[in-house]
Amino acid sequence: MPPYSSAQKQQIMQFVNLTQAKDAVAAKFLKAARWNVEEAIDAYFQSPSGAGGSTSALNKIFDSYRDSPTDNPDGIGIEGAMKYLADIQVELDEVTCLGIAELLKSPSMGEFTREGFLNGWRATGSDTLPKMTTQASHLRTSIPNQPDLFRRIYRYTFPLCRMQGQRNLQFEIAAEQWRLFFTPDSGGVQWSTPTTPWLDWWIEFLEERGKRPVNKDLWEQLEVFMRKSREDEAFGWWSADVKHIFISMPELNDDEYVRSN
To answer: Which Gene3D superfamilies does the record cross-reference, listed alphabetically (predicted)?
Structure first.
């Protein structure tokens, strides 16, 4: 290995541990990413070097978790999904679980299709359980630190958690998912400050207004509002010009409420 600093050697080791790639490959991608480990790993998994997991190996893994091979040969049900997630060290009550669901295009909570399973893991080059575990670990680290990734998973969660035949999300389910996404303990983003308990206020406010079902626009715009409030909790950005952004959120168009809180 060419001479690298101690910090660079640690970054190469971290890259190798997460991707199972060779040292030379790790160094190549890290140099291209200016030694940003997360960017280098993302670039690796999106490249031919990191993609192209074995279809036969993935099919074999998928088949081993099917609940009803005869009745549902191309699907993994709730029991199989729970066992699979446990085997790749993903907890059911962490945002990473939803990240895996988004990656594999799960049609509903606790279900995987063969097509989504194969396409998702092939795209990351993960065709063994250890590689999938590594990818899940990388996902766990990336979600709270990459806004675009966080937003993609957050938005995918709305249809994922919606009751069959319903257009909106039940308030109780939405509140449960908000507590997951907007607290760091479960791998989400902190939506509170020492002076402002934003998440608690938001849920309490909706509870006082009757726990009405949450529509898609409200769900998506709340994540935008969360980031804006984190940038400036004094609401210096709030004006008539930006108010239209939250037009689907009548709660946030209540100027008296905004000023008082």
So the answer is: Cullin, PONY binding domain (1.10.238.200), DNA helicase RuvA subunit, C-terminal domain (1.10.8.10), EF-hand (1.10.238.10)
Q: Pick from 64, 55, 59, 17: which is nearest to 37 by CA?
A: 17
Q: What is the DSSP string of 185-203?
A: GGT------SS--HHHHHH
Q: What tokens does 189 get?
A: 């983003």
The owner of tokens 């937003």 is 151
**Token pair of 64, please?**
């081993």
Element (H, E) at 135: helix 129-142
Amino acid at site 117: F
For residues 257 and 259, what is the distance between their CA atoms, to the nearest angstrom?
5
> Distance between CA 72 and CA 87 in Å, rounded?
22
CA 96, 102, 105, 106 torsion-angle sign:
positive
Block means of pLDDT (10 residues each) for the chain, length 261 residues? 84 81 89 88 72 77 94 95 98 97 95 93 88 94 95 97 92 97 95 89 92 94 89 67 51 48 46
Neighbours of 114 (CB within 10 A): 17
